[in-house]
Amino acid sequence: MLSDRELFEQIVDILGPLANVGSKITADTDLVADLSLDSLKIMEFLLEIEDRFDISVPINVLSDIRTVRDVIFQLQRLLAEAD
Fold first, then answer.
1. Largest Cα–Cα distance of the chain, in whole Å?
2. Could you give the C-alpha distances from 62 to 55, 66, 74, in angstroms and in order?
3. In the chain, N or C: fewer CB atoms in 10 Å?
4. What is the pTM assigned to this prediction?
5. What is the pLDDT of residue 21?
6. Beta-bridge partner residues of 67
7. Contact at 8 Å (CB) between 20 and 35?
8. How many domains does the chain have?
9. CA–CA distance, 44 with 58 (Å, rounded to integer)
10. Number of other residues whose CB lies within 10 A of the CB of residue 82
11. Phi, psi (deg, nearest 5) at residue 82
12. What is the distance between the alpha carbons of residues 56 and 14, in angstroms, rounded to a whole number?
């Protein structure tokens, strides 16, 4: 399984093109408030996560995701379930 740091780096790689230019991304970065991601960009982000990690992100998980840290937590859980 990937470490927190490896997951963080992959998430930053995915978020980079979707976020505002020059946005600093940390584990506590709020996807909507700090990066100004709208619903379409959030869906693009989640689709890229599904493709990259070969998982399916259930729609009910979306309400639990606000920050990059939340994404990492949910991603770890989904990857563990997939094994």
1. 36
2. 15, 8, 9
3. C
4. 0.91
5. 74
6. 30
7. yes
8. 1
9. 15
10. 10
11. -75, -20
12. 16
Instruction: Give the helix/strand (H/E) hosting 41.
Output: helix 39-53
- Residues in the chain, how many? 83
Rg (CA), the chain: 12
Q: Note whether 75 and 5 are within 8 A (CB).
A: no
CA distance 10 to 71: 11
CATH code assigned at 28: 1.10.1200.10
Question: Distance (Å, rounded) from C-alpha 68 to C-alpha 40?
Answer: 17
- Residue 35 belongs to what domain range? 4-82
